[in-house]
Amino acid sequence: LYNDKAQMLNQLAWTIVDPQGPEIKNRDLKLALKAAKRADDLTKHEDPAILDTLAKVYFDSGELGKALEIQE
Hints:
The chain has helices at residues 6-17, 29-42, 48-60, 64-71. It is globular. It has 4 helices and no strands.
């Protein structure tokens, strides 16, 4: 339904990893990563807000090197 809507995918991913959002006990980081990567692909890796979300998902997933690479 939202597979081609970058902003909706980004919002979904950010909701899962938002440090200021409500606490989610069982965060689905795999879903967040899938949504964030798709949003990033749709925007051709040029949307800073989406890149920020993608980096946060990688960070929360323990992939610190990948998170840093994306943030740079």
